[in-house]
Design goal:
Layout: E1 3-7, H1 12-23, E2 27-34, H2 42-52, E3 57-62, H3 85-88, H4 100-115, E4 119-121, H5 137-149, H6 152-155, E5 162-164, H7 172-181, H8 206-218
Parallel strand pairs: 1-2, 1-4, 2-3, 4-5
Helix pairs in contact: 1-7, 7-8
Length: about 230
């Protein structure tokens, strides 16, 4: 059984990615990052998802990106609400966290090298989110190349690291339907960027709007509660 590190936030994309990794026969090692995000509620959801899929191990690594800021998710910048689909699909939004995925993937690579895993599963997607530069296929390939140039096992030829992004060209509806096919319980997931104190989704941020649209297009009832 091949070991795989799965970046797991507890959202739809990372949860479906974990389901795909499991369906491919991988031994799952779930990596969740507590980076000082506004929607810290997702970390508990990631724990539930990890247990649901019987991951061999889950670790939660703390990297306080709030010290750096620069994003609506890691500072007092207001989270955009009620944007149109056209607005969501153009430009880099203020919810972009500077170099976040580079940091996350680097930590995943570090763990993969330690546990003798050659694969990192990452739920990047470019269809519904057009604005995040660190979700593009060319970025993923560049990181993969760097991984094999900048690690002992890569340089010594002991391991050829790969970053798998099975959702990269799927719509949110397609992702949801794939997850349902693989037995995902989406009631365990969290997508909202700006939840209330009890973790209830706002229903107005970009992530909530994309999630709602995905479930409608998939013809499936979203099991998550929304404030609006």
């Amino acid at each position: 059984m091949n070991r795989a590190v799965v970046l797991l936030s507890g959202g739809i994309d990372s949860t479906t990615t974990m389901a795909i990794a499991k369906s491919e026969g991988c031994e799952l090692y779930a990596l969740t990052i507590d980076y000082g995000q506004r929607h810290v509620h997702e970390i508990e959801k990631a724990r539930l998802v990890s247990k649901f899929f019987n991951a061999k191990k889950q670790i939660v690594v703390s990297v306080n990106l709030r010290e750096i800021g620069g994003s609506a998710l890691t500072s007092s910048i207001e989270v955009p609400a009620n944007r149109t689909q056209e607005e969501i699909s153009h430009g880099i939004p203020v919810t972009y966290v500077p170099a976040r995925n580079t940091i996350f993937l680097a930590i995943a690579l570090s763990w993969a090298e330690v546990i003798d895993a050659d694969t990192i599963f990452f739920g990047a997607n470019v269809v519904d989110y057009s604005g995040y530069p660190d979700c593009r296929p060319e970025y993923i390939r560049a990181f993969e190349s760097m991984a094999n140039l900048g690690t002992r096992k890569g340089v010594e030829g002991l391991t050829e690291f790969s970053v798998k992004t099975p959702l990269i060209n799927m719509t949110k509806a397609e992702i949801i339907l794939k997850g349902i096919e693989l037995g995902v319980d989406y009631s365990l997931t969290h997508s909202c960027y700006d939840p209330g104190e009890a973790g209830i989704a706002c229903g107005r941020c970009d992530s909530c709007l994309i999630r709602k649209k995905g479930f409608i297009e998939a013809g499936i009832t979203d099991p998550v509660r929304y404030a609006l």
